[in-house]
Amino acid sequence: MKLYTYSKKSDDTDKMNHNFLKSLIEPADTKIFMLIMDGLGGLPKESGGKTELETAATPHLDALAEQSALGLSSPAGAGIAVGSGPGHLALFGFDPFEYEIGRGALEALGVDFDLEPNDVAARGNFCTVDANGILTDRRAGRLPTEDSAKLCELLSTIQIEGVRFFVMPVKEHRFAFVIRGTDLGDYLSDTDPQKVGVAPDRVKALDEKSKETAKLVNEFIDKARLLLADKSTANMIMLRGFASLPRMPQFADIYGLKAAAIAVNGMYRGVSRLVGMEVLPVDGITIADEFTTLEKYWQDYDFFYLHIKKTDTYGESGDFDAKVKVIEEVDSFIPRVMALNPDVVIVGGDHSSPAVLKSHSWHPVPTLLYSKFVRADGVREFGERACGRGSLGVFSAQEIMPLALANAGRLAKYNA
Amino acid sequence: MKLYTYSKKSDDTDKMNHNFLKSLIEPADTKIFMLIMDGLGGLPKESGGKTELETAATPHLDALAEQSALGLSSPAGAGIAVGSGPGHLALFGFDPFEYEIGRGALEALGVDFDLEPNDVAARGNFCTVDANGILTDRRAGRLPTEDSAKLCELLSTIQIEGVRFFVMPVKEHRFAFVIRGTDLGDYLSDTDPQKVGVAPDRVKALDEKSKETAKLVNEFIDKARLLLADKSTANMIMLRGFASLPRMPQFADIYGLKAAAIAVNGMYRGVSRLVGMEVLPVDGITIADEFTTLEKYWQDYDFFYLHIKKTDTYGESGDFDAKVKVIEEVDSFIPRVMALNPDVVIVGGDHSSPAVLKSHSWHPVPTLLYSKFVRADGVREFGERACGRGSLGVFSAQEIMPLALANAGRLAKYNA
User: Fold this and answer.
1) Which of residues 298-357 of B touch A (CB under 8 A)?
2) Strands of the B344-348 sheet, one edge to the other
3) pLDDT at residue B58 tops 70
4) Which of the residues A60, A68, A110, B139 has an alpha carbon 20 to 30 A from that of A9?
5) CA distance B243 to B109
6) What is the separation, in whole angstroms, between the first and last Cα of chain A?
7) Residues in CB range of A231: below 8 A, 6 or more apart
8) B287 Cβ contact list (under 8 Å, min separation 6)
9) pLDDT above 90 for B270
């Protein structure tokens, strides 16, 4: 309801917002359940048709919608398609521009790596150098992923005392690199000179804390070069975008919530851990396994975030019908959720991933907010157009947490 | 759609907004009427039912709605329930976080005291001390309000040259304290040590301007202790949250409006006076008396704010049907308002007070904006759900004044 300002703020507005919310928090014996279907929002196959969510037979979500306030949540403002990192930060109540997850950290999370707070991650490229170490191909001819996976295994054998290294294939010449240790710094320069005909740069520390880390990473690169020297596919690596996870305000501190995350992919476990959720062990990888986990731990937490990956997977692969089926499967678990008698239920997504676009998109995301104290729109339908007419309107995803807290009886009045 | 920035901003954003509006103001011979039903927004008794406003038979408001733009106004952002002070500041176009009304001033306004700009107010507690002045009960056993009212009368007899004191009972051990004089300062420390077993603190001046005031207040406390010495109910007082009213931009200056307030409660008279409205004398205390006052002064002002208290009173006491009846009574005066031929009419509230919650709530408030130049939604209904589908959407209450000014032909084009 205010024009979105995209850019990073110069002041500490967001931190102050959380201090403000924190000042209103009061204890309550209530439970909030946030169900996130990744890339939930969609588009019809042809103009005038139905989206994936509108096509899906979702009797339980439709019934819940009737007792809920509906709207379209925008993770980062008009026209902006986001990655899962910023999309989730917004859902969790954080300004995704204020708290940016660095590229290296995103790459590691993106390959399901359980990145820890002290890890330093980077994006890696396999490349080709000549006998003098001069770059001849920055992408090693975009070698096939299966070849690069073998090289990653080889690099994973590198050992240096006091630290551990993780090297994971991403796609073609790209890999994710992580160094784990104590007191590491992530303010490190890239080694990719962005052109051929020169040697890759050395990693330079850009602050005092990162000096020892720079030495260790350069040592790793030297050992990598020796290990790769005789390889025809790629004989050198470059690293860029060094980043640790950002320090984030914690759910327990700012919201007074003991929070748990149920997710089977590393990216989502990583982002939830970042904001102070406990990541629950899921016995299996199916959607059913995730809901069983919810039931198992229901008594132990105030807030649950449950993540469904496959809606996005099929959105990105362009499989409209498969995305519809996943939504229908999720719908079938809603009665089990409601049997737990949650005080607040949010059903939404971190961004849209319309199958027709085969990609994340900027479209705001259908969102349902249920509680006994919500002003229900009374529309028995959960879908993009129903949500577009809902009383929440097009709203910032960052408003979901304050609304959930209010509906859970966890926010005192301001200045009364 | 951006998350409302809750906390006090470090920059002067709000003042700049008002300087900007001021730069566009042009004179016009038009009149704006703002009708505020306190705590107007409600909730249905059961899911799917009607709210107080939806239940009320409001033929005149419904007819006006048909020619109006509708929406749900949010005083302070998603999830935040506000007191009447910040709720009204937002309606009057001010950022309620930028201009916070201090706790002492709120307490005095809350007991209908006509707080003046130079007054310094505080929250008071009756307490109990032993023979050595050591605190034994910080709340004097929460003595009954009727006992504390008698003690307030007694303290009101205290006289010190050059200033006046006002002591008014609030509830149980709580009272409101006001010192009136010239050149007083309000940057004063609390006397409540927040624990028993020690003596109450003395008031300390925290800036130069407050030094003389601290002396006067300490003198008052000494006299109070002597007066209370033989009382069995409470034999000492403590004061905290010293505050004058904040200095606010004035309606005449920033909006070019000669503005008047019609309100029978001190809180609302105080907040209107704060922003430069003239508070009109109301001959009586009924709703009819207020509308009669509007008619009497109609020729003399550009802007009228009329406040209805009882919608909130019954919301807070949980009396759904009585709140419905108040709304119906207000509706009966709409023809008299329209007979005055106002150019702009706003009907809204400062916050929601659903009877089912018996409290202020965070739900955005049904709002109607009528003028000849508004884009009417054409919905013949004034209620929460009708407003939820209205063209104003969920919008910041701070947008009401700029919209009213524009519709009243009082804003020039920007950069044209």
Assistant:
1) 354, 356-357
2) B278-279, B259-262, B303-308, B32-37, B344-348, B365-371, B68-74, B393-396
3) yes
4) A110
5) 12
6) 24
7) A151
8) B308, B310, B326, B329, B330, B333
9) no
State the Cα–Cα distance between residues A237 and A176, nearest whole angstrom.
11
Q: Which residues in chain B touch residue A415, judged by CB atoms under 8 angstroms apart?
A: 82-83, 85-86, 96, 100-101, 106
Going by pLDDT thresholds of 50, 70 and 90, the confidence category of residue B224 is very high
pLDDT at B287 (0 to 100):
98
Nearest to B86 among A95, A377, A414 (CB): A414
| For range B387-415, the mean pLDDT | 94
- Express each pLDDT in A369-405 by its tens digit: 999 999 999 899 999 999 999 999 999 999 999 999 9
In this prediction, residue B265 carries a pLDDT of 86
How many angstroms separate the CA atoms of B18 and A19, rounded? 26
> Which of the four pLDDT bands, split at 50, 70 and 90, describes residue B7?
very low
Q: How much is the average pLDDT of B382-389?
A: 94
Confidence of residue B8 (pLDDT cuts 50, 70, 90): very low
Report yes or no: A67 at the B interface, CB cutoff 8 Å.
Answer: yes
- A148/chain B closest Cα distance in angstroms: 43
Question: Are A314 and A323 within 8 A, CB to CB?
Answer: yes
pLDDT at A98: 87
Strand partners, A179: A120, A165
Separation between Cα atoms, residue A400 and residue A305, nearest integer Å: 13
Single out the residue of B393, B365, B339, B401 nearest to residue B69, CA to CA: B393
Confidence grade of residue A112 (pLDDT, cut at 50, 70, 90): confident
A chain contacts of residue B82, beta-carbon cutoff 8 Å: 413-416
Nearest-Cα residue of chain A relative to residue B384 = A375
A389 touching chain B per CB within 8 A: yes
**Minimum distance, in Å, between the CA of residue A381 and any CA atom of chain B:** 14
Which ipTM was obtained for this model?
A: 0.85
Are residues A414 and B84, on separate chains, in Cβ contact within 8 Å?
no
Question: Which residue type sits at A234?
Answer: A
Among B6, B9, B394, select the one facing A21 at the smallest CB separation.
B6
At A34, which amino acid appears?
M
Pairing mode, strands A236-243 and A120-129: antiparallel
Cβ-based neighbours of B289, under 8 Å, separated by 6 or more: B264, B282, B283
Burial of residue A15 (number of CB atoms within 10 Å: 0-12, 13-18, 19+): middle
CB of A131 within 8 Å of a chain B CB? The answer is no
Q: Give residues 40 to 59 of B whose Cβ lies within 8 Å of A.
A: 43, 47-48, 51
